[in-house]
Amino acid sequence: MIDDIKKTLWATADKLRANMDAAEYKHLVLGLIFVKYISDTFAARRAELSTRLRDPKDEYFYGDASQEDIDAELEDRDYYREVNVFWVPEPARWEAIRAAAKQPTIGKHIDDALSLIEAENPKLKGILDKRYARAQLPDGKLGELVDLISTIGFGTDASTARDVLGQVYEYFLGMFASAEGKRGGQFYTPASIVKTLVAVLAPHQGQVYDPCCGSGGMFVQSERFIEAHGGHLGDVSIYGQEANPTTWRLAAMNLAIRGIDFNLGREPGDTFTKNQHPDLRADFILANPPFNISDWWHGSLEGDPRWHYGDPPQGNANYAWLQHMLHHLKPTGRAGIVLANGSMSSSQNNEGQIRAAMVDADVVEVMLALPGQLFFNTQIPACLWFLAKQKQRKGEVLFIDARKLATMISRVQCEFTDEVIERIAGTVASWRGEAEAVAYEDVPGYCRSVRLAEIAQHGHVLTPGRYVGAEEVEDDDEAFADKMQKLSEKLGEQMAKGAELDALIRQKLGGLGYEF
């Protein structure tokens, strides 16, 4: 049911954008969905309070108060803040926005509503994108979009409302990323990759950090993992950073609608030069940094304490990201990072020496090769690095080759199914020797545990395909000579047929006056 709702909403919303660029339109749609949600949850809390204030058996009972007194009491912001509901001033509530939908000034009305919401909720300051008055939509389209989003029913139950909105919001993020292509991938990591990182890291409690958080997908999947395993959202604290201001706002809204408390820094900023969390040492780090960026270096980074294993090359940030994350990891923490395949084997400009130093220091735990066509924004082959300062299995690295495990979901994109993700996470848990996990065994063509000395013999290259070997093929008991005989006979037949066809084609063309 929810899948049908999401698809219908997307199809209609996409039609309404007319010729507007998806990158621009995205903020209009997601901003309105956010306002609809906080207005609905505010209205639900207000209705609940109105009932409880009149109930003599309830702790909120307000005595023999008049309706005027009850209405005044309902304006107390603390009632809303204590349950993590944003206060929405009357002119900013959805009914007021919808009532103005057909007016030519609807864009300004929405911008003013967003300003009022920000003024009442410091947590949202600078986060809501006030661009509606200047939106380049054809006349009436913005009003139609308001009417469409009015059909999203979040219901009166707060947890159900949050889940429905969260699913709609995330679905739209993914669809916009697909519509935008290369640019879309800058703010959205495909869900199956995020799920794989989360499943392997298992962030139950503590501090979770993403230094290039995009729209916040790593945090959302972490939340789902925690809840699926019987934990509570309050068991983790969220820290993130994002350089792109509009994407930073998307992340803040994505977390706010789920009631997740977060710290994305005072402002958007470059992680290397404007580190928003310099003293943070996290329990879990999950990240999908931009691949192979060449314009990251600044003179102020010379001799930075983060470069513990060597100075990263100024023309490629891959090893700057790896070392930044190790620097921000607790001694008992774990990190999972998506990087381009070149990071596993490159020896240019000190990268080989840094990788060797990391391997020898025994901070590389698991290396996982990914299939192609997983991303919206690039066909560059990618891999997952899992790092840990205190490994459960010291002196070894687990290599997993998952290049053949994806399922195509469209002509141009694939993903890992939940079963594949469970297999990968189970393999790592077994290798670590975790409680209730089955005993680990190497599987040719899929996984192998390798001692550091062997990795050194291979020049500290960390490409899984080099270590896991070839997949075992079932023996059908047919002798090689017999197989060769059959194949040779089949090839001879095909070659003879090819010669016959060639002669026939020449004969037909000769009849038409062509010479050979």
Compose a concise summary of this entry.
GO terms for molecular function: DNA binding; N-methyltransferase activity; site-specific DNA-methyltransferase (adenine-specific) activity. The chain has helices at 2-16, 22-52, 67-73, 78-81, 94-99, 106-120, 141-149, 158-180, 191-201, 217-228, 245-256, 318-327, 351-360, 418-432, 452-457, 465-468, 480-511; strands at 206-210, 236-240, 262-263, 282-287, 329-340, 364-369, 382-388, 396-401, 407-408, 414-415, 447-451.
Secondary structure: elements and pairs:
Blueprint: H1 2-16, H2 22-52, H3 67-73, H4 78-81, H5 94-99, H6 106-120, H7 141-149, H8 158-180, H9 191-201, E1 206-210, H10 217-228, E2 236-240, H11 245-256, E3 262-263, E4 282-287, H12 318-327, E5 329-340, H13 351-360, E6 364-369, E7 382-388, E8 396-401, E9 407-408, E10 414-415, H14 418-432, E11 447-451, H15 452-457, H16 465-468, H17 480-511
Parallel strand pairs: 1-2, 1-4, 2-3, 4-5, 6-8
Antiparallel strand pairs: 5-7, 6-7, 8-11, 9-10
